[in-house]
Amino acid sequence: MKKITFILFAAFVLFGACKKQKAHVSETEQVLINVQQSQDSQALETQNQTWHVTNKRVCVIFGYDFNAPEAVEKFTDLLAQRYGLESDGGLIYTIIYPDSFKHGSRGYASELTSLLSGTDRDLAGVIILGAPENTHTAFAKLQDYWEQQVPYPIYALFPQDDVLGLESTCDFVLDKEQKTDLTGDIAPEETVSEIILEAPEVLTDCIDYMLNMEGPFVKDSTLPKHVQQMLKDKKIHHYVDPESGIQSINHFVLN
Q1: What CA–CA distance (Å, rounded) separates 76 from 83?
Q2: For residue 248, how many other CB atoms are within 10 A of its CB?
Q3: How far is CA 248 from CA 84, 134, 232, 236, 237, in A?
Q4: Which of 64, 107, 206, 245 meets the CB 3.0–4.6 Å disulfide criterion with 130?
Q5: What are the pLDDT tens digits along the chain (255 aa)?
């Protein structure tokens, strides 16, 4: 009877030990599975990421016609999907006029100088949509800050600032051809609507080229070729000053 009891006790201990060992192995396997799932999730996230990791940032400034909440949301969503926002480790750093330009209770375009010169970001370039008045003054001060050698390009798309001022302070300026009615007056609402419609593709074309260009343009005969290549199959022509009849080398009009 004692032998039977001993045998049963030994079997019970052995069964318990095996059960603990099995549970231990199962726990280890679960940890390995969790690690593998985490690695797979990270790999999938990397595959879905459409931008390469870099310290470079493209500053996109929303000015007139582009600073309404719905417009900012539309463009920001596009930029987030394609390039990633800085807050997510992406490439795009955004500024909104006049909210980001506050000095007291008002927003001044001249504050743009301090916003760009005071940042420690490694800028690949600046693109401003709908540049408000006095933007060119801020860019001129930025040129002074860099002793006329701004290390990154500046593109002005569909601006509303002084034409000559922007031509002298930006790598290039792009306008939308203005349509007139039978009386010769410009139809502003229709023009703004078309600009907003075409701007997303123009903006992404410019950002793609800016990231590949890695530096400012030279304002010479090669510039139009660069802009035409940047905007792909879009039709553009040189801007001609209506008063002097002089054709600008770095100001273009989108048909």
Answers
A1: 10
A2: 17
A3: 34, 20, 21, 13, 10
A4: 64
A5: 544 444 444 444 444 544 444 444 454 454 444 444 444 444 444 455 666 677 899 999 999 999 999 999 999 999 999 999 999 899 999 999 998 887 666 667 888 999 999 888 999 999 999 999 999 999 999 999 999 999 999 999 999 999 999 999 999 999 988 765 444 455 555 556 666 788 999 999 999 999 998 889 999 999 999 999 999 989 999 999 888 899 999 999 998
Q: Are 128 and 155 in contact (CB under 8 A)?
A: yes
Structure tokens at 62: 């929303």
- SS3 (DSSP) at 216: coil
The secondary structure element, H or E, covering residue 58 is: strand 56-62
Both tokens of residue 94? 């955004």
Q: Which residue in 147, 101, 151 sits closest to 126, CA to CA?
A: 151
What value, to the nearest 5°, has the Cα angle with vertex 175 and ends 215 and 155? Answer: 15
DSSP sequence for 98-149:
TGGGEETTEE-GGGHHHHHHS--SEEEEEEEESPPTTHHHHHHHHHHHTTT-
